[in-house]
Design goal:
The strands form six sheets. Strands 1-4-8-5-9-18 form a six-stranded mixed sheet, sandwiched between helices. A four-stranded antiparallel sheet has the order 6-7-20-19. It has a four-stranded antiparallel sheet with strand order 13-15-11-16. The chain is an alpha+beta fold and 424 residues long. The chain contains ten helices and 20 strands. Helix content is 33%, strand content 24%. The structure holds zinc ion (ZN). It holds the Pfam family Peptidase_M20.
Length: 424
């Protein structure tokens, strides 16, 4: 008995044990691969880096016996500093389908992009201490992609593989709200029974994210009237003041519903102080706990834009929407979490979950009706900062957790939730 095997409980069958034990040997190659992948910059805007990474992932995932496709993203619209709509390009997204006719269908997703741009100072991984790797994307989520891949390889080596088909989607714009890939994610979700997402656990101890808030990003464009600040101040309509007024009133909505937060991130506009500015932008985000609150805050912000516009006698145009719908824990998702926890318990991995204000592709998969556990990646922490770290022993640990989950979904020991739309 070696490594983690000593933690395996009696509930783990001999056949499961044999597959899981084989994963023990993967620690070295998983760590090496994470080091290689971390060294490749894949900031969400670094299209060259993303294309290189997509090619490498395509080769790696073809080990599962089918050829992944690299699909073009949907063009993404954004509002530039002049208040005009601009189209930006994202990287390609990987899609793999295996055994689409099998009775149980699982969707596994992850992202290849990171929050660190090409010119960021944080580009290379270093060992913080033995077993703790500090590097860009090591936890979020190049480590998670390794976990997903090794778990799927383990499933393929198991006696139950034929009963379970799956799709893998690895997108290139998760860190910028997945707008270019959400259609692909939701289409894949429509053919699956269960969603597994490889975001890192929420704590170094491995706590999963349960319910997630929904997230919307808005840009308010204020268009006023320019005038000489000395000669003709009264005929000006100050767009900066209107945008600021909107910002203050919008921010005051925080807490108006339980869990509702409004964060004003940026105000831009204006110029010399002797000119009444005719253009200003206010960029803000809203997070909500429920679908009702989502509709409430959308209506409230629209009402505010109209009211502030009327008060300042200028035009306010509110752009934006919820790109991450709220993900409350429904019964089928709760059951899936309990199944994951039961697998964890038999592997000596205590699993718990808690709600979070953070969002990910799990929000969008849940909106498509899929029960989703979206933090099945590695243990680590301080993601989105230069102190991001990965606890490397969690690579094998989490691969074993997912492998056991997949084997049991295939075998039917974990009941397969009804497919979306299949229930009345
Ligand atoms: Zn992530």
């Amino acid at each position: 008995m070696t490594g983690r095997e000593k933690f395996f409980g009696d509930g783990v069958s001999a056949a499961e044990r044999s597959v899981l034990s084989a994963l023990e040997g993967a620690q070295g190659r998983m760590t090496e691969t994470v080091l290689d992948w971390s060294a490749m910059n894949t900031g969400s805007a670094n299209l060259d880096g993303l294309e290189r990474m997509a090619g490498i992932l395509k080769t790696s995932f073809s080990a599962l016996g089918a050829e992944p496709a690299l699909l073009d993203p949907v063009p993404v619209e954004t509002i530039d500093g002049a208040g005009e709509v601009r189209t930006i390009r994202r990287g390609r997204n990987l899609h793999l389908s295996v055994r689409t006719q099998a009775p149980v269908q699982v969707l596994l997703t992850g992202h290849m992009d990171t929050v660190f741009p090409k010119d960021d100072a944080f580009q290379a991984a270093t060992w913080r201490e033995p077993g703790v790797l500090n590097g860009p994307g090591v936890a979020d989520m190049k480590g998670g992609l390794q976990v997903m891949l090794e778990a799927l390889k383990a499933l393929e080596a198991s006696p139950w593989a034929e009963r379970l088909g799956y799709q893998v989607v690895i997108n290139s714009d998760e860190e910028v709200s997945s707008i270019g890939s959400v259609a692909l994610l939701q289409d894949a979700a429509s053919r699956a029974h269960v969603g597994l997402v490889y975001e890192p656990a929420t704590t170094p101890e491995g706590v999963l994210a349960g319910a997630r808030k929904g997230l919307a990003a808005f840009t308010l464009v204020a268009r006023g009237v320019s005038a000489h600040a000395g000669r003709d101040h009264a005929s000006g309509r100050n767009a900066v003041v209107a945008a600021a007024d909107f910002a203050v009133r919008a921010a005051a909505l925080s807490g108006a519903r339980e869990g509702l937060t409004i964060n004003v991130g940026r105000i831009e506009g204006g110029g010399p102080t002797n000119v009444v500015p005719d253009l200003a932008l206010c960029r803000l985000e809203a997070r909500v706990a429920t679908h009702e609150d989502r509709h409430w805050v959308e209506a409230e912000l629209a009402r505010l834009a109209a009211a502030v516009g009327a008060d300042h006698r200028l035009t306010l145009e509110l752009n934006g929407r919820f790109t991450r719908p709220p993900k409350p824990l429904d019964a089928s998702t709760q059951a899936l979490f309990e199944a994951v926890a039961a697998c964890g318990a038999q592997l000596g991995q205590p699993i718990s979950w808690k709600p979070t204000g953070g969002c990910c592709d799990g929000n969008n998969l849940a909106e498509a009706g899929l029960p989703v556990v979206d933090t099945l990646g590695v243990r680590g922490g301080l993601i989105h900062s230069r102190d991001e770290f990965l606890i490397t022993e969690s690579l094998v640990e989490r691969a074993q957790l997912s492998a056991l989950l997949l084997m049991r979904l295939a075998a039917g020991t974990i009941p397969c939730p009804p497919r979306i739309g299949a229930a009345a």
